[in-house]
Amino acid sequence: MVTRDFREPEVENPMEPPRIMIKPLPEILDEMEGNIEAAAEAARRAEEAAKAARGAAGDATTASKEAAKRAEEARKAGETAAATATQAAAEAAAKAEETARAARHAAEAAVRKAEEADKGAREAAEVFKKAAEAATKTSREATEEATREAEEAIKAAREASAAAKRVSEEAAQRAEEASALAREAAAAATVSADEAARRAEEVALKAEETARGAIYAAEEATRKAEEVDLAAREWAAATTRAAEEAAARAEEMAVAAKEAVEKAIEAANVAGKQADDSRQAARAALAELAKQVTAETAAQTDEAGRNAKRAAAAAFHAAEEVDRKAESAAMVGEEAIGAATQVSGRIAEMADEAGKDAKKAAVAGFVTADKIRKKAELADIAGDEAIEEAAKALHKLVSRAGELAKAAEEAGLKAEAAARQAREAAEAAMIAAGEEAAAKAEEVKKAAAEAVSRAEETARGAGYVAEEAVKKASEVELAARETGALVEKSVKADVAKIERLARLAKRDVEEATKAAIAVAKQSDESAKVAREARNEAIKSPTIETAKKADEAGKKAKRAAAAAFHVAGEVGRKAEAAAAAGKEAVEAAFKVSGKIAVRVNEAGIGAKEAATAGFEVAVNTRKSAEVADLAGDEAIEAAAQALHYMVSRAEELAKAAMAAADAATKASEVAREAAETAGKMSQKVSERAEEAARGAKSIAAEAIRKAGDMAETMEKAHQDTVAEVGRFSAKAEEGLRLANEALERLKGIASRLLTQWEAVVIVLAITLAAAMLGVALASIASP
User: Fold this and answer.
1) pTM, to two decimals
2) What is the pLDDT of residues 181-218, one digit of tens each?
3) Is the sign of the CA dihedral 585, 591, 592, 595 positive or negative?
4) Which of 654, 674, 696 is where one domain is finished?
5) Could you read off the pLDDT of 652-667 as tens digits, one per residue?
6) What range does the domain containing 400 cover?
7) Across 483-613, where does the E strand assignment appear?
8) Which residues contact 590 (CB under 8 A, 6 or more apart)?
9) Backbone dihedral region of 621: left (phi > 0), alpha (psi from -120 to 50 degrees) or beta?
10) Last residue of some domain: 654, 670, 695?
């Protein structure tokens, strides 16, 4: 739909206008864009704060997990050290106990062997008193071996006890180191947890501040969005008001266009009536001329024909004016109907009614223009016929005057011939009759004289008549020549005027065509820009694209309105040029020579220019329709983009509020995670300290057991040494007794036994010594 810029009347309004009427729409759109950017920035900051809070919570969780992991490793290390210390202490205790047990067994075995040896020695002393010395020696050696082995056993027990004590000390040291590591790990975990808690708390505080900022920004964005929404509503109200005002203006224009069409119809009807009257007058003049062909009737017929052609031209002009006013009324009526669809209520009804009345008036105007145009064509044809018949009548009058002159001349010649013949006859009669015939001759002469007189009178009468005829013929010829000159002069003037009008019409059409081509090009460019702006606004709805689309749409509609106007001008001038060209071509046949060629060329040029003008008008109207449609689409896309931005601002405000809530929740989660991490690290530290204390107590218990075991082994060693001393004393006592017995046996043997018997005794003693050695060897071996 074509929109036109109309100057609004200035109306004083005592009330304060709304903001959107104070601030231009681009400034409001810029402010709304800034608010939307602030809301987006607040949402982004809130989102970053939420991310930071989540990252802090993750760091705190990671730190707590790391602290828990390190505490768990410390606990496991303490447990492992405690287990290792316990195991080492147990192994050392077991080894010490085994060594002590072996030493005890060895001592018991030595005691038992010693007892057995003592018993065997006693038995041997009793049985083999002679072998006492060897037995004593063997017993001493066995005793020394047993003592040595006992000392070795004691030494091994002491080494085992020392090893157990060393292992226990090492286990205790490792337990202490593990406890220290556990304490350090627990302390590091506590520090990490505290640091993570502090960082989480800082991040939580920062998140809270960011959340508060986001909330404030969201509230600000919401407030700005509400202001924008209020501005949008004000703009909508202003748009509605503007639409109502536009509808009212469209109604006024439709009423004015209707009245203009009605006035043009009245004027066209008057022109049509004048064309009818002039046509009837031309017909009446033709009828009078047909009845009586005179110079007066010919002049009257020519004047009536020219009046008919002038009335036809005026009727053509009136019909063209009615067409133009009707086209404008149809366009304005369409705009009024379109404006009525943008409003409601009584204004819409009045605008719609005015638009429909304007369109009805336009239809009536088109019908009237066609009717007047037909009357003008009939009057033009009647004028042409009257002028043509007047010219024919004048030619007839000129030819008739020539015939009358010729007839008068012939009558004079005949009168002269008759007089000459009468004179000759009289002379012949006088000669032939002679004297006798004198009287008769005289009579004849008289008669001849009378005849001559009559002939002369007749000749004079004929001459007078001829002179009168010639005079009248000359007068008629002169009048015909003057009339012909006047007619020729008038025809030439009319033809020159028609030529000038044709050339002017051609020039007007060419200029209008150039202007229409330029306007159509601008319309096409504005339509292209509007389509691009529309597509950009649909693809990326922003404030900038909305403003561009709105401006491009309005520019395209202005270009379309200009193109429609120019197309109408070109069409009207093309029709005028076509009519002027046709009239010039027809007028060229009424003259001859160079002027005919010139007028014919002017008519053909005007008709060609009119044809090109009609084509340009059609193309310009198409370009205007395309630009008008593109402008409507661009304005609609701008409105949609504006609505989208308002809804987007509301969504951003909601998103900012949601982000602020999420940041608050994330800060709470981070604080809870930090508290949980602190509690976990504290628990892990306590568990590590407890594990260290357990490992230390276990190591202390192992050391205590190892000390008890060492004391037991020392006591067992002392008991063994005492037992060995007692056994050595007994062995020495037995050895002494054996020596004494041996001495006694030797004395008895030297006194009582022979040499052979002495050899047998020695062998027995040797055997007893061997047996005693075996017994001692069995005692020595555990």
Assistant:
1) 0.40
2) 656 655 665 666 566 556 656 755 665 676 566 566 65
3) negative
4) 654
5) 667 666 766 665 666 5
6) 239-439
7) none
8) 491, 495
9) alpha
10) 654
